[in-house]
Amino acid sequence: MNNIIVEDYICLGITFANVTGFSFLSGLSGAMEPICGQAHGAKNVKLLHKTLLMVTLLLFLVSIPIDKILIRFSQQEHNAIVAKNYLF
User: What is the pTM for the complete model shown?
Assistant: First the structure.
């Protein structure tokens, strides 16, 4: 594969991750903060553990299907797969 084309795929993956992925994941993480703060203040270790575990799992599951999201936004399938492979 041509190096310029590979660089384009890498750029696509990084741009998508920065604009949508990291912003979205940051928002989900921010929603967890008040719950964890309240659980920690109340010394409710079970709720703190449960919240951290659930949000970590949710963040992981949301970040997996990047290629399908790119394809839905009219990117070519090959480009989306290469971008996903670069990010993961």
Answer: 0.54
Cα–Cα dist 79/53, whole Å: 33
| Rounded Cα distance, 59 and 61, in Å | 6
Q: Are 32 and 47 in contact (CB under 8 A)?
A: no
Ranges of each domain in the chain: 3-87
- pLDDT value of residue 3: 67
Q: Which parts of 1-88 fold into alpha helices (H)?
A: 3-16, 22-41, 45-63, 66-72, 77-87
**Distance from C-alpha of 52 to C-alpha of 62, rounded to nearest angstrom:** 15
